[in-house]
What we know:
It is a single chain. Helices cover about 35% and strands about 20% of the residues. By secondary structure, it is an alpha+beta fold. It has one domain (about 1-319). The strands form 4 sheets. Strands 2, 4, 5, 6, 9, 11 and 12 form a 7-stranded mixed beta sheet that branches. The protein has a two-stranded antiparallel ribbon with strand order 1-13. The longest helix has 26 residues, at about 20-45. Residues about 60-65, about 245-250 and about 310-319 have low confidence and may be disordered.
Amino acid sequence: MGRWFGYRPGYIDACRLFISSELYEWYRHITLANEELRGELINMHQQGKTPDEYGIKVRSHHTMMITAKAKMRSGSKIFLDLSGSTIETYAFTRDKNIILHNNKIVRSFIDNLDKNRLVIKKSNLVFSNINHRKIIDLLRVYKYSDQNLKFEKELLIRYIEKQVTKNWLVNWTIGVISLVNRRKDGAEFNTENYKLIPSSRSNTSISNTIFFSNNRLAAPQDELIDLNETELKKLEKITKSKNKNKFNVVEGKKIRGKRREGLLLLYPLIIQEKFDHLKSRETDDIHIGMSISFPTHDVTSPVEYVVTNNYWEQENNEN
Length: 319
């Protein structure tokens, strides 16, 4: 019947698809991963890359983590190269213990960063030339939803450590994103040394897990936080866009191509429900989002990723 409706105009409002929330989220993950890969192929085409180079890049692209989990059995191995990519948390748990844990460790992390390396841009905190060990130590204790299929901290730690041996990703910029104006609800995320105003994000999922639109956390302009005015002017010529708030996946790759250090962005967040019938789920909890932007590098060392797939394990147990 779905095929019948699909070929006849005037029936779209009669179509209904009933699936589990778990299956819905998998379709969502795969669709967005495909869109990201399309952007990667466009970028490679503009660089004049060959089909062989396309294949090598696609097989090592971080979106393959999603495909691997969807299709491969546990124990399958792929090699991932995170150069020029952004890995971020876009799914959040409602577990109070995890929320409070992340609040505590991030407050301590921010307060222990060297103030001499701090510049305040608008209301955002920007710390420069921070040793990679700080990022790794934070990753080790940070907790997050397992629905973040591209965000696996052990993989990220191994990748950073491997690049450091090649004298790359040694130093980082850390940005803490804060609104300029006070919120109407008065929410704040305060540490001993800083007063920060959380951003808002809308939950677009009907499941108990919180998901953001397009599986993205960082706003486009956030990745420009560590660039000076000279670099921004050069960037306008590269991206052919004078609006810093608008650049697509391809342009985002060009921006990371101009960066020499890793960029870690931290987001104190208040979650709002997109759908009116779910407004009762809103709380004053402050979630901590994390976005890691890796600069583009011609010579990197991919890391081995071993697929751990709960779906396949459950299937095997049932059979």
